[in-house]
Design a protein that fits this description.
Distance between the termini: 81 Å
Helix content: 40-55%
Strand content: 15-25%
Radius of gyration: 27 Å
Strand order of the largest sheet: 1-2-3-4-8
Shape: elongated
Number of strands: 13
Largest sheet: 5 strands, antiparallel
Mean pLDDT: 86
Number of helices: 4
Number of domains: 2
Length: about 280
């Protein structure tokens, strides 16, 4: 039994996706994944940009479904047609059985990207909180005019820290995967330019998107999580990102060191922001 490779994955709205994984369908959402064995599937219906997986059920009972919306109408139609054609030859399939008993659902950990963004947001929030504290201290010391200097310098320093941290996170992830991950080649799907497929050690087909061009691209993925994948960039670009991240992080940290020093000066009277230089 096989599914034509032109429709290996159907992408829906809300980061939902449906793909064939061996003898089962995998319906993935941001925080949950359902594994639906083919014997549990009655049929798949494509209705415009929606794709519905109907489960088998005893006669007269409620028929449960899984649904994704916002998919490509053409991809949904091709996927449904291919899977429905393959269902007839699925061994052990009983359309009168309760398909829900075969479905396995598991919660997914927070994605790497969302985890990175949360960390950067928390760091930025901490930097802004520090800025507010410094402004309050300066105002209570009688140097309220210092706020005019503190706010723009603090905002610029916070932005530099956030952009620098993002660059360093990205550089470290790529460095870790190219150094300690598994390197292979992903082949382009002719009917879907920009989509490339690779197979992990468990035999699962994975996909990655890039406009790098060519019939195949080199990818590196984590041996413990084959979905954590990068496309290695030239060394010059990686070094440039590292240098940029370090420079911005240093500038951001230096800005806050300067703000703290000016606040101390405002408190002990060694700096007077009210008087012209």
């Amino acid at each position: 039994m096989s599914i034509i490779p032109s429709t290996p994955v159907v992408q829906g709205s809300g980061k939902a996706s449906l793909r064939l994984d061996g003898d089962a369908l995998l319906l993935s959402r941001p925080h949950e994944e359902a594994r639906i064995p083919l014997p549990a599937v009655e049929r798949i219906r494509a209705e415009g940009r929606s794709l519905t997986v109907e489960l088998t059920a005893p006669a007269g009972s409620t028929r449960y479904v899984h649904r994704i919306d916002g998919a490509s109408a053409a991809a949904a139609s091709m996927f449904a047609e291919a899977v429905n054609a393959a269902l007839a030859g699925t061994p052990g399939r009983d359309t009168s059985a309760d398909g829900t008993a075969l479905v396995e659902t598991r919660s997914l950990p927070r994605s790497r990207r969302s985890t990175k963004l949360r960390r950067i947001l928390w760091m930025s929030a901490g930097a802004l909180a520090l800025l507010v504290v410094l402004c309050v201290i300066a105002a209570r010391a009688g140097e309220a005019v210092a706020i005019v200097v503190f706010i723009p310098l603090g905002l610029i320093s916070t932005a530099a820290l956030a952009v620098g941290a993002n660059a360093l996170f990205n550089w470290y992830r790529e460095w870790r995967l190219t150094r300690h991950g598994i390197t292979t080649f992903a082949a382009e799907v002719p009917e879907r330019p920009g989509m490339y497929l690779y197979t992990d050690p468990a035999g699962r087909i994975r996909h990655v998107f890039t406009w790098a061009g060519g019939i195949a691209v080199k990818v590196c993925y984590d041996s413990r999580d084959a979905g954590d994948v990068v496309l290695p960039r030239p060394a010059l670009l990686r070094r440039g990102e590292l240098s940029l991240g370090l420079f911005l992080a240093f500038c951001g940290a230096g800005g806050f060191v300067g703000l703290v020093a000016m606040t101390v000066g405002a408190v002990d009277g060694s700096m007077n922001f009210s008087e012209p230089a």
